[in-house]
């Protein structure tokens, strides 16, 4: 009996020691997991990867619609309203066909339109009692002042900007602008020998109604090619600057400095 009681006591102690070991292991595991979680929480957050800046033609950051002013002219150029854009382009084409292909003159066209309109309205106003028709309601046409003032103000700003650029070029301060303006005027003089002002104006008008809308549609494909062309142009310009432009005197201002 004594041996049995001793063996029972030893088994109880063995079970207690096993339970203590298990509890210690559980406690150590919990503490290690909590410390690891704390350490994970203390790790600084990795900075968000910034998206690389996409190259855009002329360094623009706004959409094409905002570049054109974001108003009704931009809607016309970008074909937001297809009927209006098609009507404007069709009217410009009709004017070009009349004056360029049919060799119609502006004063002759205006005179014929006024003659026909006034003749129809005059006869209708006097013959309504014979044909039992109501006389035509001729609206009074008055041109608003605000659009003309806005156009004149914008035109004044652009002309003043052009005069300021020409003044800087004539003063010998901007060699790069001087070369760009000379090249642009040379291109305009060559184009002027190919066509007259009306045809050039019509070509520009057609380009404004086609190029922007095509660029807006395919800008993700056009901009990479423009970026490569810009890089190549900068390389060639750097070589030209080092070999030619750097050897040209920059005027009295640079000599004094």
TrEMBL record:
<feature type="region of interest" description="Disordered">
    <location>
        <begin position="1"/>
        <end position="54"/>
    </location>
</feature>
<dbReference type="Pfam" id="PF02453">
    <property type="entry name" value="Reticulon"/>
</dbReference>
<feature type="compositionally biased region" description="Basic and acidic residues">
    <location>
        <begin position="12"/>
        <end position="31"/>
    </location>
</feature>
<keyword id="KW-0256">Endoplasmic reticulum</keyword>
<keyword id="KW-0472">Membrane</keyword>
<dbReference type="GO" id="GO:0009617">
    <property type="term" value="P:response to bacterium"/>
</dbReference>
<dbReference type="InterPro" id="IPR003388">
    <property type="entry name" value="Reticulon"/>
</dbReference>
<feature type="transmembrane region" description="Helical">
    <location>
        <begin position="178"/>
        <end position="208"/>
    </location>
</feature>
<feature type="compositionally biased region" description="Basic and acidic residues">
    <location>
        <begin position="40"/>
        <end position="54"/>
    </location>
</feature>
<feature type="transmembrane region" description="Helical">
    <location>
        <begin position="84"/>
        <end position="99"/>
    </location>
</feature>
<keyword id="KW-1133">Transmembrane helix</keyword>
<dbReference type="InterPro" id="IPR045064">
    <property type="entry name" value="Reticulon-like"/>
</dbReference>
<feature type="compositionally biased region" description="Polar residues">
    <location>
        <begin position="1"/>
        <end position="10"/>
    </location>
</feature>
<protein>
    <recommendedName>
        <fullName>Reticulon-like protein</fullName>
    </recommendedName>
</protein>
<keyword id="KW-0812">Transmembrane</keyword>
<dbReference type="GO" id="GO:0005789">
    <property type="term" value="C:endoplasmic reticulum membrane"/>
</dbReference>
<feature type="transmembrane region" description="Helical">
    <location>
        <begin position="105"/>
        <end position="124"/>
    </location>
</feature>
<feature type="domain" description="Reticulon">
    <location>
        <begin position="73"/>
        <end position="257"/>
    </location>
</feature>
């Amino acid at each position: 009996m004594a041996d049995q009681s001793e063996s029972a006591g030893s088994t109880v102690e063995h079970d207690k020691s096993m339970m203590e070991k298990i509890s210690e292991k559980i406690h150590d595991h919990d503490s290690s997991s909590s410390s690891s979680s704390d350490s994970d929480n203390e790790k600084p957050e990795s900075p968000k990867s910034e998206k690389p800046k996409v190259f855009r033609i002329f360094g623009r950051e706004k959409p094409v619609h905002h570049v054109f002013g974001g108003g009704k002219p931009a809607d016309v150029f970008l074909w937001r309203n297809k009927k209006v854009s098609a009507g404007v382009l069709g009217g410009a084409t009709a004017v070009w066909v009349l004056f360029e292909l049919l060799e119609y003159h502006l004063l002759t066209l205006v005179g014929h339109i006024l003659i026909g309109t006034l003749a129809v309205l005059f006869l209708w106003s006097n013959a309504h009692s014979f044909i039992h028709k109501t006389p035509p309601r001729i609206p009074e046409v008055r041109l608003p002042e605000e659009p003309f003032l806005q156009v004149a103000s914008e035109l004044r700003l652009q002309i003043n900007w052009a005069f300021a650029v020409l003044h800087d070029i004539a003063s010998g301060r901007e060699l790069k602008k001087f070369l760009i303006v000379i090249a642009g005027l040379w291109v305009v003089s060559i184009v002027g020998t190919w066509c007259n002002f009306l045809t050039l104006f019509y070509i520009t008008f057609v380009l404004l109604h086609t190029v922007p809308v095509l660029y807006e549609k395919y800008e993700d494909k056009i901009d990479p090619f423009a970026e490569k062309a810009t890089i190549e142009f900068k390389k060639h310009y750097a070589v030209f600057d080092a070999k030619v432009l750097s050897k040209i005197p920059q005027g009295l201002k640079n000599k004094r400095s």
